[in-house]
Design goal:
7-stranded mixed sheet, 21 helices, 7-stranded antiparallel sheet, Glycerol-3-phosphate (1)-acyltransferase, single chain, alpha/beta
Length: 631
């Protein structure tokens, strides 16, 4: 069929939908609602009887033709029919209309070669869902899944179904039954709206009914997915859960940033490989996936994030690999080996935490020996622009350009030839970044410093603790009045120039505190939330925390524990909220009762002690090497 003919059919269908729906509103819906408001029930019934077959046909034709047009939502006529007719009649009329529309589409596609919505985004979504696994999926099962999903119009689904090898009988039966949950929900919304108008139903109750109906449809979707759709490729990155997760992430993030990719030879990688990436923002997993395109890596993620029962189950189905942050963990390495053996890439964020200043954190968990044992290529990826778009310390997201590129590809032969120390240095060098130095994007926003005091908590002029405050585009010391203004490139207009450099000055000021027994922190009272290993329960209590050169101690009324510094390479935290540690099979979240800004200072003290420990170890190794050389 010629494209001009297709456009004509769509235009005529659109015109018919508008005309018929306007007729339905004028002659049936509006008069019917007026009679209901006047409590003239007999008059309302007589109106419907007088319209008879004409009213029924109008609903059926509008429902049918809107499917051919595709982009007109079916809910308009479904809700309207629910307001105008008894519930069972409304359902039959809408279902009949959808079946008529599905039949028209089937004939247009099969008999006339009608392309319709084939090049649309809806068609692309369906094709991706259909190809999201390695096994052949039942066309009927996929159609049921699509009808229950609220994101794709019925017409687009029918265009896709008509292009499958399904025979008409099975195709139309699938359509007729698959749309029922959505029709029932829309009709019930219409009936609830009618009672709201005619019977003075309270508005909060109407909203509650609509929310509950939407929840019922969502539950039906989840039950269906869990029973049938999610079983395929269960527990791997080829599962529908994995695909759905990134689709949702795309809906949340896709239009809120301008993402650019530079694959730099990624397409040449064959078989499984390891992806190492910097970590400047929460959505780095989504940005990294856009670089890898068709490759579905198994992501290594913070175990606590996926510890809640429902999330844990979905994460397991998606093939995510859980790991304890900065803690001994034997399950994650086994899971990584298993993923590689099954042919999947594995994605790791070696920093283990979101960047605080836009500069790379030192990698405290060296893994070169592990990567060498895997015996696969290593891709080092770089994400630039994500930190300033949504840093750890600021809640608001700024829309800007974000670039993801392949920074370095280390072939397995090259990795094998290097020593562990050499490979670690190579990875560290490739992963290092400082967004303040490289950023050229413009940020015209007027609240760029909001929340910055949760990172730059100390005045570098007067030394005041917790005296800084982010106001508009300036960081101000409320003690001495010093002020640092942030320009459009997110740099200070005066020394020290960048957020990372300011933080470096704070580190120098804090080095003197390391000589004190309590590191200048003292013992603090905390509200404690304790999570079980698998997130099955949590408990709350109060206690006291203390950090020293021996480690981090926690005491409560009856007992306590100490985590030695040798087992505390870093202290994860959330700005102005809490810091966290693992002890045995529990995860402890500590919320300071006073001045929660201090959590960043506690984390910095742990980082400083780890740096000193690393420096001392390097000096010792150099001395040993010199002695061996002298001998």
């Amino acid at each position: 069929m010629k494209r001009s003919t297709e456009k004509l059919i769509i235009a005529l269908s659109l015109a018919a939908v508008i005309a018929l729906f306007a007729l339905f509103l004028k002659d049936i819906l509006i008069p019917y609602v007026k009679l209901e408001i006047a409590n003239d029930l007999d008059g309302a019934k007589e109106l419907l009887v007088s319209k008879g077959v004409l009213g029924f046909l109008t609903v059926i034709l509008v429902e049918a033709l809107q499917m051919v047009v595709v982009f007109i939502p079916a809910e308009f006529i479904q809700i309207s029919s629910g307001m105008s007719y008894p519930f069972y009649i409304a359902i039959l009329l809408c279902d009949a209309g959808i079946c008529l529309g599905a039949t028209i589409i089937f004939l247009l596609v099969r008999a006339l070669g009608f392309k319709g919505d084939r090049e649309s985004k809806n068609e692309e979504r369906i094709e991706k869902l259909a190809a999201s696994s390695k096994k052949e999926r039942s066309a009927v099962l996929l159609l049921y899944f699509l009808f229950i999903m609220p994101l794709i119009p019925f017409g687009a689904i029918c265009y896709y179904g008509s292009r499958t090898k399904l025979k008409y009988g099975r195709y139309i039966l699938t359509v007729a039954t698959g749309v029922i949950p959505s029709i029932v929900t829309s009709n019930l919304m219409g009936a609830a709206t009618k009672y709201f108008i005619a019977r003075d139903l309270p508005l909060p109750l109407l909203i509650l009914i609509i929310v509950l109906l939407a929840a019922v449809l969502f539950v039906c979707l989840i039950l269906f997915l869990d029973k049938f759709y999610f079983k395929e490729n269960d527990g791997t990155p080829d599962s529908p859960v994995y695909s759905a997760f990134f689709r949702i992430a795309g809906l949340l993030r896709g239009r809120r940033q301008r993402l650019h990719t530079d694959d730099g030879g990624v397409k040449e990688l064959k078989g499984p490989f390891v992806v190492l990436c910097n970590h400047g923002s929460f959505y780095d997993f989504y940005y990294l996936k856009r670089l890898l395109k068709d490759a579905n890596p198994a992501y290594v993620v913070n175990r606590h994030i996926i510890s809640y029962p429902v999330i844990r189950k979905l994460a397991k189905k998606a093939g995510f690999i859980s790991k304890r942050l900065f803690n001994v963990d034997f399950t994650a390495p086994r899971a990584i080996f298993r993923a590689v053996k099954e042919g999947y890439p594995v994605a790791v964020f070696p920093e283990g935490r979101l960047s605080l200043t836009g500069r790379a954190y030192p990698i405290v968990e060296k893994s070169a020996g592990f990567y060498k044992k895997l015996g696969v290529d290593i891709l080092v990826a770089r994400i630039e622009g994500a930190y300033f778009a949504n840093p750890k310390w600021r809640k608001r997201f700024y829309r800007t350009d974000i670039t993801v590129r392949a920074e370095r590809i280390i072939k397995k032969e090259e990795a094998k030839a290097l020593s562990e120390e050499e490979l670690d240095r190579l990875i560290d060098s490739a992963l290092y970044y400082d967004e303040s130095e490289t950023n050229e994007a413009l940020f015209p926003q007027k609240d760029k410093a909001k929340g910055l005091e949760n990172v730059l908590y100390r005045c570098i002029k007067c030394g005041g603790l917790y005296s800084t405050k982010g106001r508009g585009n300036s960081l101000v010391c409320e003690s001495c009045g010093a002020e640092w203004h942030i320009d459009e490139h997110y740099r200070f207009t005066e020394a020290p120039g960048t957020i990372a450099n300011y933080y470096d000055v704070i580190k120098k000021l804090e080095l003197a505190e390391l000589e004190k027994p309590d590191l200048g922190l003292g013992e603090i009272a905390v509200d404690t939330v304790i999570f079980s290993e698998k997130g099955r329960f949590r408990t709350k209590e109060t206690g006291f925390c203390r950090l020293s050169k021996e480690g981090l101690s926690y005491r409560r009324d009856t007992d306590g524990f100490t985590i030695p510094l040798s087992m505390l390479p870093a202290l994860p935290f959330s700005c102005n909220e809490e810091f966290e540690v693992y002890h045995e099979d529990r995860l402890y979240y500590f919320y300071p009762k006073e001045n929660r800004r201090q959590v960043v200072r506690w984390a910095l003290m742990v980082d400083l002690m780890e740096e000193l420990k690393t420096e001392n170890r390097q000096i010792s190794q150099e001395r040993t090497a010199c002695n061996e050389k002298a001998e």
